[in-house]
Design a protein that fits this description.
Blueprint (H helix, E strand, L loop, with lengths): L11 E10 L3 E8 L4 E9 H4 L7 H8 L10 E4 L3 E7 L6 H7 L4 H20 L2 E2 L8 E3 L5 E3 L6 E2 L6 E2 L17 E2 L2 H16 L1 H9 L8 H9 L15 H10 L11 H8 L10 E4 L3 E8 L2 E8 L4 E7 L5 E2 L10 H10 L1
Length: 346
Amino acid sequence: MLKPYNKAELVFDFLREIGSDGRNSRTYVAKDHQLNAEIVVKQIAKARLGSTANFFEESQALYASAHPNVVQIHYACYDDDHVYLAMPHYQNGSVKGLITSRHMTVREIVRIACQVLSGLHNIHSKKLVHFDVKPDNILLSNRGEALVSDFGQAKQMNFVGVAPQDRHYTPMIPPEATRQDQFDVTFDIYQFGLTLYRMCNGNDAFYEQLSKYGPRIANRNDFLFDLRNGRFPDRKAFAPHIPSRLRNIVRKCLETDPEDRYQSAIDVANALADIDGKTLDWRLAASPDKKVWTKNENGTEYELTVNRDGSSECYKCVNGGRRTRVTDGCKKTISEKEILTLLGSY
């Protein structure tokens, strides 16, 4: 019988910190001397896990959920004070970085959302609830594909399909988490819906809504009241190029009653598969003075500009030729309904 070998040694150097999860963990880009490669290492304080904790619970959940749309794990190890999880370094960053830097087209939103849902479906099939679905935890591979990451909150479901959780990131908390501590996969569906909402509208719009509750949600009672009553986030506030079908999918994911939401990741993916039409490729560029939508469709370039004073200009250009005015889009004052009509017509 082989004896366990417990004198193995791993050597890596932290190069720079790229994120932290409060006092529980820190994440670094590191140089792994065994692999001769740059990797990402998540450092978790043992003291924060508790004396009776399974130190490798997160790494085991990652390994069990191996899937093309779930972050890989290279290995896990520990020293006297910390547990370390080693993962690939995805240089394209996260969806949070993406939606902070620019607005996504509907085609990009649907593609990435379906990849996230594929990863979530796999996680749920392993009888796990992720409990921390948010733009920060959706990484982008070198090919730009979505990868669900960070299983620090993940819990195993019991025989009736629920899992315990009492630690929550407040801005992404579902309404039911304010009154109970046992949840099924609809918890992840809500957080996915809120992530999808942020992908549709950009991070600035999301944080602007959060700001009304004060720094670090100081006005907690107001926040919880709006959360429970479906007022946060604002289900009516969407960027004009987001089609009604996608808006309705977001709203169903965000239903305050878990039973009214989609009941599985596959259900959401099937609904997203039905989205098509002329709104797929509009890209929004917003500034304090104006909002500009552009797209190229079969060689024809379109541009709609809505200025801060409410006036608008609209042009099209066929195969690099002369720009011509689109009369319906050139107005001294343009209404929200007229913007929606234009974006859905061209």
